[in-house]
Amino acid sequence: MGPLEIIWLVVVLTLPLIVFITLIILAVWLVMRLGPLPSVKIGCVVCLLVPISFIVLRVLPTGLIEREGEGFTVSLQTWFGKNEFIDVSRGPGLTIGDLVDLKLFEDFRPGMSPQDAAEKFGPPTETRDIRYKGLKGTAYLYSRPSGLVGPVEDKPPSRPVILYPSSNRPNDVILNPSLVTELSALLPSEEKVDVHFEYGWDRLSIELYMNREEIEYMLLLELDPRDLEKAAETAESGS
Questions:
Q1: What is the torsion angle, in degrees rounded to the nearest 10, for the CA atoms of residue 199, residue 202, residue 205 and residue 208?
Q2: What is the pLDDT of residues 137-181, one digit of tens each?
Q3: Whole-model pTM over 0.70
Q4: Among 9, 12, 26, 130, which is most exposed with the fewest C-beta within 10 angstroms?
Q5: Which of 225, 208, 233 is nearest to 99 (CA)?
Q6: Is the separation of the CB atoms in 199 and 228 below 8 Å?
Q7: What is the C-alpha to C-alpha distance for residues 132 and 130, in angstroms, rounded to an integer?
Q8: Alpha helices in the chain (DSSP H)
Q9: Ordered alpha helix ranges (H), 60-213
Q10: Which residues pair with 208 in a beta bridge?
Q11: Which of 106, 95, 126 is nearest to 206 (CA)?
Q12: How much is the pLDDT for 5?
C-alpha cells in the first residue's frame, strides 16, 4: 500500500467520526439557545441526532479495498462494513468489450427508444417497471437467446439497455478470467452488489448487479466508440 492509499484510508476512517462529533456539538449549541425546559432541549437533541446519524452512516465512506488486475483495477467501496459498490477502472488500450461480452445485448444500443425498438423488432415480449438504484422507468423486453433484453424508458436523455441474462454465471458474461478472479475475491456469496465499469472520467458504460455466483441484470449506459467499431467489423466479416 502506497502513501496515497494510506492517507486515503486514514481520511475515510476518521472523517465520519470528526463530522459526527462536530454535528453533535453544533446540535447541542443550537438547542441550548432554545427554551428553558430540559425536556424540550432533550427532545430537540434527539430529533437532530437521528437524521445526523443517518447521514453520517449512509453518506460518508469508511472503507476502500483495491485489487490490481491485468490492465485494470477493482475497487470495493464499503460504508460501515456494508458493501456498497465495486468500480472497475480500465488501463490504456482496454475497452469494455475486452472485459464484458457486449454481444449479449444483441442489436440493442443505449439511446434506443421503445418506439425505435418496436419499429425494428416488433412488439416487446413483456414490460417491467424498473425501480433500481438511480433508475426508474419501464423496460421493454424482448426474448433473445442471451436472455430478456431491451430499452428502458428513463428520464431523457438517459435510455439504457437492460439485460436479464439467461446464462448468468460470471464466467459466461465476463470475458477476462483475471477479472472474474479479482471480483470473486471481493464479492459476497449471497448479497448482490453493483459493479460499475467506467468509461472516461466518472462516466459509467456498463453496470452488473451481481454476487460471486450469479448476475441478476446488466445495464448498458454508454458505448465506447472502439467497441462500436469492433461490432461493425464483426458484422461485416459475418456478412
A1: 120
A2: 899 999 999 999 999 987 655 688 999 999 999 999 999 899 999
A3: no
A4: 26
A5: 208
A6: no
A7: 6
A8: 3-32, 38-59, 96-99, 114-121, 170-173, 177-186, 225-238
A9: 96-99, 114-121, 170-173, 177-186
A10: 195, 218
A11: 95
A12: 47
- Residue 190's contacts (CB-CB under 8 Å, 6 or more residues apart) are 211
Residue 236 carries which side chain, given as an amino acid letter? E
- What residue ranges do the domains of the chain occupy? 3-59, 63-238
Q: Are 196 and 86 in contact (CB under 8 A)?
A: yes
With cell 414490460, the residue in question is 127
Q: How many residues does the chain have?
A: 239
How far is the C-alpha of 197 from the C-alpha of 153, rounded, in Å?
A: 22
| Per-residue model confidence as pLDDT tens digits over 62-119 | 556 777 777 788 888 766 556 678 888 877 777 888 889 989 998 898 888 899 999 9
| One-letter amino acid of 152 | V
CA-to-CA distance for 120 and 118, rounded, in angstroms? 5
